[in-house]
Amino acid sequence: MVLRGAPLIGICAAYGMVFCVRESNSLEELIKKAQYLSLARPTAVNLNWAIKRILNMIKNVRFDKKRLAQYVLNEARRIHEEDRMLCYKIGRFGSRLIKKNAKIITICNTGSLATGGTGTAFSVIYHSRNKRPFVYVLETRPYLQGARLTMYELKKARIDSCLICDSAAAFVMKREKIDLVITGADRIARNGDTANKIGTFMLASLAKRFRIPFYVAAPYSTFDASIPTGADIPVEARPHNEIIDPIGLKGFDIKTLNIAFDITPASHITAFITDKGIIKSPLKIPSIFNYV
Amino acid sequence: MVLRGAPLIGICAAYGMVFCVRESNSLEELIKKAQYLSLARPTAVNLNWAIKRILNMIKNVRFDKKRLAQYVLNEARRIHEEDRMLCYKIGRFGSRLIKKNAKIITICNTGSLATGGTGTAFSVIYHSRNKRPFVYVLETRPYLQGARLTMYELKKARIDSCLICDSAAAFVMKREKIDLVITGADRIARNGDTANKIGTFMLASLAKRFRIPFYVAAPYSTFDASIPTGADIPVEARPHNEIIDPIGLKGFDIKTLNIAFDITPASHITAFITDKGIIKSPLKIPSIFNYV
User: Fold this and answer.
1) Among positive and negative, which fits the CA dihedral A73, A75, A76, A81?
2) Is any Cβ of chain B less than 8 angstroms from the Cβ of A162?
3) Least confident stretch, A7-11, A273-277, B286-290
4) Angle at the Cα of A3 from the Cα atoms of A27 and A157, rounded to 5 degrees
5) How many CB pairs under 8 A join A and B?
C-alpha cells in the first residue's frame, strides 16, 4: 500500500520490471520474477497489463542484461509519459460533462497521487475547475484515501470541497441535489462491469435510485478484454488490521470482513470517460475493444 | 457524547431533572433549567419526552425542594425500569421476524449501552440468539458506535458477528444474501419518517433496491406525534473534529460536513418493531398514536 491507484500500479510495475531484468540471467528467470511481481495485487488490471506489455516487447530480443535493462527502462518511461497524456485526454473529454457550479461526489483517490498525470476522475474535475465545481469527497474507509489524499489534491488545485463520511452519501445526494458522481476504476470487464474501491457499488446503486449520472473515468489500460463480466474479476480481501488500526482498535479481538473492492454492474454506469472519448454504458464491445 | 442512544438519553434526562430540582427554588427556575437541559441534543425525541413527562407530573405540586427531588427521582426510576420492560417487549415481538441462521445488517449501537435494558434493534437480535443469527455490524462513522460498542455487546452475548466498513453494506447485501436490516431510531414522525444515525437512510435505500426487509425497532417514547413528517425533524450537525480526529487527521485544515443523523422515509421501512407489537409502515396514525 506504499503505491496504490490502478494507473500508478501499472507505471510502477513497468519500472519494477527494470529491477527484474537486472536480477535475472535468462528470459526464463525474468518471466518467473515477472510472474511474482504480478501477484502483488489481484484486482487492478494495470499491473498485469504493464508487465505483459514489457514481456511482449522483449520476448524476441536476445538476453543481454545491460542493454535489456535500458530497453525496459525506456519502455517504462514511455508508459509513464503515456499515462500523463491519457490523464490529460480523460480530463478534457470528461470536462464536457461538467456544468457550471456542478455538485460532484467522488470516492477514493484518482489524482496525481494515483496516476502519472492529473488523474482519472480527478482529472475530469481538475480540467473543469474554471466552472467552479463543488466536490463532496467520501473519506473512503478503511484506508481513507479520500480524506488523506483527495482532499489534499483538491486543496492544492484550489477546488472547493468538503469531506463526508461514506455513509452520508445517500443523504447528501438527496439533500444537496448532487449533479453527478464520478469515480476511477481498477478493472473493467468486457461487458462494462467495473471493479473499484469498496463503496463504489454503494454510490452507483444510490445514484441510480436518485437518477444522478454515474461516470467511471479510466484509461484504455483498465479495460480487460479477457474478462467477460464482473463476476470473473478477482476481488481482493485485505488484512483485518486495515479496518481496526486506523480507528484506535488495534489489538482488539474483533472479527472483520475487509473487502477492498466491489463490482459495479455496467447497468449502473451512465458512461465511461476514457482517453478515446466518452463511451455509453453498457459497452458495445467493438467500440471499446478495438484499440485495446 | 458521554451518554448516547435515544432511550438512554431519555432515562438520563429524567435523572438530570432530579439535579434541576435540587438547584431550583421555584417552579419557574426549574422550568428554565429543564429548557436548558432539553437543548443538549436536538434529534432524539426521548430527551424532550422524559423532561415533559416529569414537568407534567409536577406542575401542580407544591414546590417543596426536598420532597420534589424524591418525587422526581422515583419517576426517573420508573422511566428507567419502564425502558427495561420496553426493551424486553421489543425484543420478544421482533424475534418473531428472525428466521434460523438469519443474516442481519445493523448500524450504530442499540443494546444495553444505549438503553435501560437489552436494547431496541439489539434486543430483537438478542432475543433471537437461539436461532443463531449472523450479524454484519456497520462500523458507523464518524463516532464508530458499531465498532466500539455493538461488536462488544454481540461478543458478550455470544452472537456471531463481523465488522464491516459502512461503504461495504451494498456489496455485502448483494454477495452475502442478507435476510433483513434492523436499526434503532432517534425520532419517528407522525407519518413514519424516521431520524436515525447517519447511514440509516443509505441502508434503507439499498435494502429497498435489493428487496430486503428493513425494520426500525423503537419504544413508544420515540414516536413524536407533534412532528408531521421527517422534513420537520431537526437534524444535528456535529463538530468537525468528530470526523477527522478518530482517523489521525487532528489539526489538519480540512472542510467537513458532519451530519450526525439522516431521515429515512416511511416508504423505505417495512415495519416498526415497538413495545406494542409489529406495526407495518407507513403508519396508520390511529393504530400507533392512540397510546402516545
Assistant:
1) positive
2) yes
3) B286-290
4) 135
5) 144
